Every structure is written in C-alpha cells, then in structure tokens.
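Protocol step 4 of 5: obtain the predicted structure for the target chain.
Materials: sequence only (see below). No template structures provided, no constraints applied. The aim of this step is simply to have a reference model before the mutagenesis design in step 5. Sequence pasted as it appears in the construct record:
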Amino acid sequence: MEMEKVRRANVAVKNYALHCGIKSVERWAVSWLAGTNRTEGSAIAARSAAIARAEWAAEEEARASAAEWAIARAEWAEAEEWAAAEAARAEAARAGL
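Step 4 output (structure tokens):
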C-alpha cells in the first residue's frame, strides 16, 4: 500500500509540479523524484506553492474573460453606433436633405 502512495505521488509530481513554472517547486519536484527530499514539510511547501499557482491561473483566466467581454461590448457599441448613423442617413434621405 505504501508503494502505491509513492507511485501516485510521483505521478502527481511529474504531471503538476515538475514543469509548473515556479522554480522553487520545480527544484523540489526534481529532488522528490530523485528521492532526496521527501519530508512532510517539503511536500506541504510544494502543495502550498501549487495552490498559489492554481489561484494565479484562475485569476488570469478571469482577467482574460473580462477582457473578452469588454472587447465584445465595444464591438457591439460600435455596431449600434453604426446602425444609428445609418438610420439617421436614411431618415435624412427620406426627408430630402
């Protein structure tokens, strides 16, 4: 059973920590996989860093969504302005101006 836990931990470290973009976590992952730093304290530190990375990624995604919404809203407003200008030109043409 203990070997299964280690195997699962190794898979998680390879998949999520080894190339996460946070240098301290990546260094920890290398030492974990090498078997040189498997203390509970180091695992807790790595988990905390991984959580912080996930929170940052979620914030980035929210910012990207907000930017996409702002762009779509600006495009809609521009189309609305264009439609209003077209309606005004048509009205002026009907009035013979």
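Step 4 remarks: Residues 40-94 form the longest helix (55 residues). Helices lie at 2-17, 23-34, 40-94.
Proceed to step 5.
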